[in-house]
Amino acid sequence: MNSQHFQTPVEYLKGVGLARAEVLKKELGIFIFEDLLKHFPYKYIDRTRFYKIRDINPEMPYVQVLARLVSKEVLGEKHTKRLVVQAKDDTGYIELVWFQGIKWIEKTLVPGKVYVLFGKPGSFNGKPQMAHPEVEIYSSKEFKQKGNLTLQPAYNSTEKLKQFSLDSKGLQKLISSLLDMHAKDIQENLPLYILNKFKLAGRAESYKNIHFPDNQTQLNEATYRLKFEELFFLQLKLLKNKLLRTQKFKGNVFASVGHYFNDFYSNKLPFELTDAQKRVLKEIRIDTQRGVQMNRLLQGDVGSGKTVVALMSMLIAIDNGFQACIMAPTEILANQHYQTISSLIGDKFLEIALLTGSVPQKKRKIIHEKLENGSLKILIGTHALIEDKVQYQNLGLVVIDEQHRFGVEQRAKLWRKNIIPPHVLVMTATPIPRTLAMTLYGDLDVSVIDQLPAGRKPIETRHYYEAQRLRMFGMMKQEITKGRQIYVVYPLIEESEKLDLKSLMDGVEIMSREFPLPQYRISVVHGRLSAADKDFEMQRFIKSETHIMVATTVIEVGVNVPNASVMVIENAERFGLSQLHQLRGRVGRGAEQSFCILMSKDKLSNDGRVRLNTMVKTNNGFEIAEIDMQLRGPGNIEGTQQSGVLDLKVADLATDQQLLIQARQCVEDIFARDPQLALPEHHILQAAFQSKNAGLSWDKIS
Ligand code: ADP
Ligand code: MG
């Protein structure tokens, strides 16, 4: 709101006062007029017409009926006590019944008078009935005046608010009086040409109509306009941030590709890059030449080959006299990156080191020294990488793996590691839908590896019910006979580590009985083990000393055992889609056909069934992420939880994708034409920007 009025503390609204203001703040986060105005209805009740009694039936949602009371009586005793009322119109009779609040309602109802009844039609003994309808005495005059024949808003409220008479109706009254007084002060904040282009309703009108629409069309138009506005300003803020950042921060220039890159590419790279990998490398190459700091998100399914891309980008940095580092969220993962990269580049190519919490002091000191004098080129590690003690001679590129596990603080630390901030490449194996990325990472550039290396056989996924467990065992034996290894994963039960361990231990017992020594050997890994024990068990499996790895989800990230070709997921219905997909990504890394077996109980919820069917149907992480978002809503997708960016009031990233894409495009066009928003037609945007709520925040920058 540009107008001063809307910044007024809510206690100054007529009918609020200090006590109610206090609960509004506590319960709904409503502090000022604007907050109240943006407390939108969560649904609407159709009061656009009166139905005749003859025309209603139990299939219908809430309806409104005009009827004259005929009689009322209280029947039954104690538990069966109820108020039964007969009413009629010119087409028939309807029975109204109350089981609660009987005394009070009985007093207010007067036979012979006409009432507006509002409720869900039901039937009793084959006759029309309504339980607990809203009743209101009908006054034709008032009805004409107030125009009660509308879509009636319903607002979220709480028990506490209700104690202050702020139920849905109470809130409605406040919002109505706010609009009565100040609707005229709501100023337009979008340029006229945009209103015209997207056929958007005016702003004041939209706020009025989203609360109190006369009909469905009005409501649709208001909602559309406010959704567009919300998405538009979010994108405006994100893209403005990006623009400012590129103006404010210079970037290291990786002018040329040199010896390290070329030597690696020609002599060491053991395979042909996929087209997607080549494309992404090109994107990074262009980014790092411009003298502008790169902030790029690299999304790609597990196994799509992100690590190689990261390595080759680092080689370009090194070719230009810089150092590079990779930061991983866990020690296991850091270790693995170190192994992978070491084996790819071979000995004596360039100096790399691993720095994690468990590196002993002495070795650590040497690493620190070599970083400072510049002889160490690539550092791989965990959070230990960004401790203040760690000083680089010339850090040019930072690769962050599985970004969402790192806090903003930690990323900010990285920035201070060089005078010119290093380029940042964030890698994630949790693909998120395009529209979500546009919002969540709207100020980053996004690259996608949407292609697996050639020759990989797609993982075959099967879903078995508990009753088919023997088939699953049979299949496990078959694969072990072929020399393969198998993961069996049990869910993590967050509320109870104990239960967790129990379900795992029960599983171990079942597996041990089915796969007895000495013919079969089993590794067990779970969160309660010490790092050393975990590593010991992992190593046994990696070295093929054991056939089966029974584990909780600790193996979700990391661990690359190409010979493991079967992933059995127990209680698969308990896992979210993205987690199932992550787990499945642990297999399919070798040349053989791999399998993922989803074990579930026999009775599934609808969501559970959709999840498992989706897994069976597709291997594509982006497709899965899309369905995940439809099932759970954008706010519940992994990696989005702490993001304020998704606090959208009207728009919904799962259903408003088209609109989001349009809004983003619209903003991109504006900045391309007028980066300073200096054109007269964009003054209105400048103003909106300078208002309190569009303030720039830097917290989303990698
Ligand atoms: P991600 O990190 O995306 O999960 P990795 O980079 O670990 O994937 O790659 C997975 C495996 O595929 C590694 O063994 C890697 O060497 C191999 N790989 C990567 N790119 C290719 C390619 N273009 N062709 C064949 N194998 C590849
Ligand atoms: Mg990886």
From TrEMBL:
<keyword id="KW-0238">DNA-binding</keyword>
<keyword id="KW-0547">Nucleotide-binding</keyword>
<dbReference type="InterPro" id="IPR033454">
    <property type="entry name" value="RecG_wedge"/>
</dbReference>
<dbReference type="GO" id="GO:0043138">
    <property type="term" value="F:3'-5' DNA helicase activity"/>
</dbReference>
<dbReference type="Pfam" id="PF00270">
    <property type="entry name" value="DEAD"/>
</dbReference>
<keyword id="KW-0234">DNA repair</keyword>
<dbReference type="GO" id="GO:0006281">
    <property type="term" value="P:DNA repair"/>
</dbReference>
<comment type="function">
    <text>Plays a critical role in recombination and DNA repair. Helps process Holliday junction intermediates to mature products by catalyzing branch migration. Has replication fork regression activity, unwinds stalled or blocked replication forks to make a HJ that can be resolved. Has a DNA unwinding activity characteristic of a DNA helicase with 3'-5' polarity.</text>
</comment>
<dbReference type="InterPro" id="IPR004609">
    <property type="entry name" value="ATP-dep_DNA_helicase_RecG"/>
</dbReference>
<dbReference type="InterPro" id="IPR012340">
    <property type="entry name" value="NA-bd_OB-fold"/>
</dbReference>
<keyword id="KW-0347">Helicase</keyword>
<dbReference type="GO" id="GO:0016887">
    <property type="term" value="F:ATP hydrolysis activity"/>
</dbReference>
<keyword id="KW-0378">Hydrolase</keyword>
<protein>
    <recommendedName>
        <fullName>ATP-dependent DNA helicase RecG</fullName>
        <ecNumber>5.6.2.4</ecNumber>
    </recommendedName>
</protein>
<dbReference type="InterPro" id="IPR047112">
    <property type="entry name" value="RecG/Mfd"/>
</dbReference>
<dbReference type="Pfam" id="PF17191">
    <property type="entry name" value="RecG_wedge"/>
</dbReference>
<keyword id="KW-0227">DNA damage</keyword>
<keyword id="KW-0067">ATP-binding</keyword>
<feature type="domain" description="Helicase ATP-binding">
    <location>
        <begin position="287"/>
        <end position="449"/>
    </location>
</feature>
<keyword id="KW-0413">Isomerase</keyword>
<dbReference type="GO" id="GO:0003677">
    <property type="term" value="F:DNA binding"/>
</dbReference>
<dbReference type="Pfam" id="PF19833">
    <property type="entry name" value="RecG_dom3_C"/>
</dbReference>
<dbReference type="InterPro" id="IPR001650">
    <property type="entry name" value="Helicase_C-like"/>
</dbReference>
<dbReference type="GO" id="GO:0005524">
    <property type="term" value="F:ATP binding"/>
</dbReference>
<dbReference type="GO" id="GO:0006310">
    <property type="term" value="P:DNA recombination"/>
</dbReference>
<dbReference type="InterPro" id="IPR011545">
    <property type="entry name" value="DEAD/DEAH_box_helicase_dom"/>
</dbReference>
<dbReference type="InterPro" id="IPR014001">
    <property type="entry name" value="Helicase_ATP-bd"/>
</dbReference>
<keyword id="KW-0233">DNA recombination</keyword>
<dbReference type="Pfam" id="PF00271">
    <property type="entry name" value="Helicase_C"/>
</dbReference>
<feature type="domain" description="Helicase C-terminal">
    <location>
        <begin position="475"/>
        <end position="635"/>
    </location>
</feature>
<dbReference type="InterPro" id="IPR045562">
    <property type="entry name" value="RecG_dom3_C"/>
</dbReference>
<dbReference type="InterPro" id="IPR027417">
    <property type="entry name" value="P-loop_NTPase"/>
</dbReference>
<comment type="similarity">
    <text>Belongs to the helicase family. RecG subfamily.</text>
</comment>
